[in-house]
Amino acid sequence: MSAATGFAPNKEHRNLSATNPLRLLEQRMNRLLGENLFPLALFGEPGWAMASWTPSCDIYETPAEFVIKADLPGLKGEDISVTLENNALIIRGERRFEEETPQENYHRIERTYGEFTRSFTLPANIDLNQIGVVFANGVLRLTLPKLEQAKAKQLEIKLA
Length: 160
Prior knowledge:
The structure is a single chain. The protein has helices at 21-33, 46-49, and strands spanning 57-61, 65-71, 80-85, 88-95, 114-121, 132-136, 139-145. With 160 residues, it is mainly beta. The protein has a single domain, classed as Immunoglobulin-like (Sandwich), CATH 2.60.40.790. β6 and β7 (139-145) form a beta hairpin. The radius of gyration is 20 Å and the shape is elongated.
């Protein structure tokens, strides 16, 4: 993605749980060792298993539009909201822990639950009135059409 697209994460809407030093340490150690170092957090420390998360997003550009795809497995449409605020596109939602099995019967909880927020500053060449939002098979797809004057045009070369 080129730096000119303007799709940088908006710092005002960053995931607040990322500032928790214990959560940060847990995430880094789990990535390093590939396992859950805090299995006792399942029993009596629900905040560890229910911490906020950040869905993965892909952003790409075509001649006519920008496309954002966000992976939101296990969510329903009513669990997600998409808003425009001050030239920022904001995706919010929540993945809830469904206690079908008593928590004391779990041996490991690796999926993260809780609220999330992703936001992106939009480039100036987006037609804000034509943004499309579709959610299917756990993927949120946003199409952001470019304004007509922003689209590339082939110019005719006249021979003199």
